[in-house]
Amino acid sequence: MLNALDGMGDSQRATVPLLKDRHDVILHGGVILQYLLERLHSPRIAATLSDGLDGYALHLLKTISL
């Protein structure tokens, strides 16, 4: 993926709808992510729409439930 993004060049990445606002930094972020995955010996990463606040709300619901 990083090779494909790098091969596109900055101006071409700027034309991709999901990358247009991040075209100048997406490659750098990808390199950082790849480095971290290698250092952590992690073969993959998962994305979610939930965050820490969702987890806290679920915890409260389970512990304070009447």
Automatic annotation (TrEMBL):
Gene3D superfamilies: Exopolyphosphatase. Domain 2. This is Ppx/GppA phosphatase domain-containing protein. It comes from bioreactor metagenome. The lineage of its organism: unclassified sequences, metagenomes, ecological metagenomes.
